[in-house]
Amino acid sequence: MSSAPPLGRRRLLAASATAGLTTSPAGADTLANVPAREPGAPLSARSERSRFVELGRVPEAAPGIRPVDPVDAINSKTPFDRLVGSITPTDLHYERSHAGVPDLDPAKHRLLVHGLAARSLVLTMDDIRAMPSVSRVAFLECTGNGWENWKAADPTLTVQNTHGLVSTHEWTGVPLRFVIDLVGGVPSATWMLAEGADGAAVARSIPLTEEIMAEGILAYAQNGEPLRPAHGFPLRLFLPGLEGNLSIKWLRRLKFGDQPFMTRWETARYTQLQADGRARQFQLRQEVNSVITAPSGMMRVRPGPVRISGLAWSGHGRIVQVEVSTDGGASWQAARLTAPALPKAQVRFEMDWVWAGAPTGIVSRATDEMRNVQPDRAAFIARTGTNALFHYSAQQTWRISAEGDVRNALS
Ligand SMILES: Nc1nc2c(c(=O)[nH]1)N[C@H]1C(S)=C(S)[C@@H](COP(=O)(O)O)O[C@H]1N2
Ligand SMILES: [Mo]
User: Fold this and answer.
1) Does the pLDDT at position 410 exceed 80?
2) Where does the record place the Oxidoreductase molybdopterin-binding domain (predicted)?
3) Which atom of ligand 1 sits closest to the CA of residue 237?
């Protein structure tokens, strides 16, 4: 029998975890290799980013239409290719606004709560802020996230283009249940209309399931500060795990009823054309999903150690496992979650890999606590067809060429 290969898999991986580090030995007692201290700029009212760091979203119109005049934009996407950790910086939370951002005065803002309830109420923001609050870290995802890849994969897209319509924040506000109790309960209601105060009059019918009653929040803060106007100031609905469109911004009305209200947003807009040509309504949950954020579209890798990093999330609950394939989906290895996975929140994963220099595809696949496994594209398309536009959650493949160019691909 011949001896074992010179570098076993375990040692190779250990080497790859540190081989990217360019460490140099320090002299015994000297700071000679460390830059000198610097005098500081005056303190300020806000902490701005370093001038050496550039981060921004990209405003876009419909899929495939870019660059876009900001006036025509309906989406502005999170730059996942340059973020780390699991929480999205406040100013980089993705934005989707159908009729611009209204400039609402919180002193004048009102929330009407009425319909099939024991009594109707008009609430001020002071009323709402005086109520008991909850805070929850959870993702918000537009149903349009991933729509770039329904039919074809544009090889010039970055992960910001393909997956930038999801973000994770800590949201603070009043439990929906508290407001329902305040109007005396809604025993005969099965649906709730939520309506925004923007020009588009976005309004959605929300089924009053146990889950929604227990988890719904009338949110007035994001990451510890008042909502920003783009995200619904002074008040929005927040429904963890469900399609972003339901989380109505600039919330002005909740109306209870015993059937869906059939607004144009659920008859024309947020319906899904299925493979057989029939439309599906009220597909509300965001499915288990994941994406490798580095290396990703339009990046370049060199042969040798490569740290693979990405994000996973599911509208069904916690992520329990993320696997990564570095051979286009033929074989899989468990990735490491870098923080505790919270229910219905994004969690980061990492895996160390050594790229030998041959063309391949890198892919991630997530599993949630309900044992939903993110499907590969073939299985996903077999189930949904290609007529649809929303709720794309198939595995994302990044192809790596012999030169190390990383490109968006269908598989
Ligand atoms: N009133 C109102 N609510 C709205 C929208 C809107 O245009 N108007 N956009 C919806 C959509 S489609 C999504 S995905 C989320 C986006 O929230 P964000 O901009 O805070 O990320 O808000 C939803 N709520
Ligand atoms: Mo959306």
Assistant:
1) yes
2) 98-265
3) 24
262 DSSP 8-state letter: -
Distance from chain centroid for Cα 350? 18
143 Cα nearest atom in ligand 1: 14
HSE-CB of 94 using CA atoms within 13 angstroms = 27
Structure tokens at 117: 């309830």
Contact by Cβ (8 Å): 408, 297 = yes
Instruction: Say if ligand 1 is within 6 A of residue 261 CB.
Output: no
Backbone dihedral region of 93: left (phi > 0), alpha (psi from -120 to 50 degrees) or beta? beta
The arithmetic mean of pLDDT across residues 292-311, rounded, is 98
Q: What is the chain's alpha carbon radius of gyration, rounded to the nearest angstrom?
A: 24
CA 119 – ligand 2 centroid, Å: 32
Domains of the chain: 95-280 (3.90.420.10), 289-409 (2.60.40.650)
- Other C-beta atoms closer than 10 Å to the C-beta of 380 total 18
Question: What is the per-residue pLDDT for 55?
Answer: 94
pTM of the model: 0.93
Strands (E), 281-332: 289-294, 304-313, 319-325
